[in-house]
Write a structure and sequence with these properties.
This protein is mostly helical. The protein has helices at 2-36, 41-61, 65-84, 90-109. The protein has one domain (2-113): Four Helix Bundle (Hemerythrin (Met), subunit A) (Up-down Bundle). It is elongated and about 55 Å long.
């Protein structure tokens, strides 16, 4: 039972690595839209918030604390811009791009084995 549970966790982590790559790409597409179409900027901002939030939560749960922290910073910056109800200025764009670059780097280097849970030793009293 322990081996089966460990395999299930490892499979989740493996799947997570590709999922966060897709989520990060979705954020990049949102960022590209900010520059092209100001009328849909609010929608794109809301989408970017959702994608960053997903990366933050799932990465934190699956043993990628650095990715989770980077996504949290990016999400927070998106929310600040969203709540300001003003057009995104150059300084906000620069900050968001910087946070995104950090997240993108972490995600592109993420491997299942880098997860703190990948080789986690289940407690002796875990179900067998």
């Amino acid at each position: 039972m322990k081996d089966e549970m460990k395999n299930q966790i490892q499979n989740l982590i493996i799947k997570h690595c590709s999922t966060i790559a897709r989520e990060a790409e979705a954020i990049r597409l949102c960022l590209d839209c900010f520059d092209q179409d100001v009328t849909s900027a609010t929608d794109m901002l809301e989408n970017a918030i959702q994608h960053a939030h997903k990366i933050k939560g799932s990465s934190g749960s699956l043993g990628f604390p650095d990715i989770s922290a980077a996504a949290a910073c990016l999400e927070r910056q998106f929310r600040i811009v969203h709540l300001s109800e003003e057009e995104m200025g150059l300084s906000e764009r620069i900050q968001i791009q910087a946070y995104y670059a950090i997240l993108e780097q972490l995600v592109s280097n993420a491997t299942p084995e880098a997860s703190t849970l990948y080789d986690y030793k289940l407690p002796a009293n875990a179900p067998r």
